Recover the amino acids of this structure.
């Protein structure tokens, strides 16, 4: 278990180091200014804050997360309401998603990526016997989602709302929620689709048209694909990319993967994909001894899946496999709320993975190891089930 955790944390450090390198490279502009160093220094500050927060979270027991889940969720809802109040929330490009605290700013919707799974996981464990009931097994689980998603859509942030819906659905599926409830969820999803704004529909229609005529693709996608095309197999070299020089929009945030493709080529891009695959596989291995329907496994696997899913969605947008949507690449994009929340998620995953290697057999566990059992040679031993 400790070796798995060490490998997992090593991969996290590699991704973070790679992210610092790419943020520095992607922040270069055609006219060098002090802002290039400002981006790097701000990213470093958020990285330090995130690492400290993740370290503190990793030291807390899983019971803390389970018991405090309702309070953490309630705090997130308060912040989601506050960000919509003029004078409290900050409006940027017709979106009111940020709360500024001096030099720092935060997105409450990013907090929901942690607190919503924590609450749903705690509810699933507590209400397992009611899952098959129509009312008691449906309404209590739909209510938290129905509170958060409209608030996020109001900002407006359709991408994050859809992301929260998918991750919540994943956790409920892993927890044994009946399939019929997912089928019923198609109706509110269709209702939301009918209320999309014209610019949101245009993103979808432009995406569909681009597959038959690349000239109809959005400007961001065109520049992104040009970046990948110019990178070739091995890339042009770190710091030597041209598209980021005022051609590729949001080069150090939403489209940082395009910079990877240009400067490191296909080899570097596939290497990054392999890093994420290793991150996911080693992360899942941390919970292989846990009860699959237990709080630790449900929330831990969901938080891991969220980060990987966000990386996949970012790659899909950058390579024109999904409609254009502002979604950053976790651990790689220029950091703010997303970087800190991603690191906190990792800290919680480590915290949850420390408890109960022998939990399936209700054995006493300390720091991931079965203790005071002289007849048990190894936690994987079949003889453990006979004690």
């Amino acid at each position: 278990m400790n070796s798995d955790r060490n490998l997992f944390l090593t991969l996290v450090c590699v991704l973070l180091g790679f992210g610092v390198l790419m943020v520095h490279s992607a922040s270069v502009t055609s006219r060098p200014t002090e802002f290039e160093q400002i981006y790097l220094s701000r990213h470093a500050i958020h990285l330090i804050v995130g690492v400290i927060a993740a370290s503190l979270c990793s030291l807390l027991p899983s019971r803390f997360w389970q018991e405090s889940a309702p309070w953490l969720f309630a705090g997130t809802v308060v912040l989601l309401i506050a960000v919509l109040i003029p004078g409290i929330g900050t409006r940027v490009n017709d979106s009111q998603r940020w709360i500024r605290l001096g030099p720092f700013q935060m997105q409450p919707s990013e907090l929901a990526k942690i607190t919503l799974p924590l609450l749903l996981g705690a509810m699933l464990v507590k209400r397992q016997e009611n899952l098959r009931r129509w009312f008691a097994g449906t309404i209590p689980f739909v209510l938290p989602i129905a509170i958060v998603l409209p608030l996020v859509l109001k900002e407006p942030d359709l991408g994050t709302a859809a992301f929260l819906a998918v991750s919540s659905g994943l956790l409920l599926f892993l927890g044994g929620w009946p399939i019929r409830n997912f089928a019923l969820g198609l109706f509110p999803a269709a209702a939301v689709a009918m209320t999309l704004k014209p610019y949101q529909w245009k993103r979808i229609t432009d995406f569909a048209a681009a597959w038959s005529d690349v000239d109809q693709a959005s400007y961001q996608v065109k520049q992104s694909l040009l970046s990948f095309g110019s990178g070739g197999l091995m890339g042009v070299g770190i710091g030597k990319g041209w598209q980021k020089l005022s051609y590729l929009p949001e080069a150090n945030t939403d489209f940082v993967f395009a910079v990877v493709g240009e400067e490191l080529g296909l080899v570097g891009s596939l290497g990054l994909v392999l890093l994420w695959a290793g991150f996911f596989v080693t992360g899942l291995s941390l919970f292989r001894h846990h009860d699959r329907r237990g709080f630790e496994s449900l929330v831990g696997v969901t938080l891991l899946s969220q980060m990987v899913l966000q990386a996949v969605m970012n790659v899909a947008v950058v390579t024109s496999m999904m409609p254009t949507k502002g979604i950053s690449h976790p651990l790689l994009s220029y950091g703010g709320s997303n970087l800190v929340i991603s690191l906190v998620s990792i800290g919680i995953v480590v915290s949850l993975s420390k408890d109960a290697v022998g939990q399936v057999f209700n054995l006493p566990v300390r720091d991931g190891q079965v203790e005071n059992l002289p007849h048990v040679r190894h936690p994987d031993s079949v003889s453990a089930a006979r004690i």
Notes: The beta strands are 89-92, 95-101, 104-106, 365-366, 369-370. Residues 2-216+290-348 form one domain.
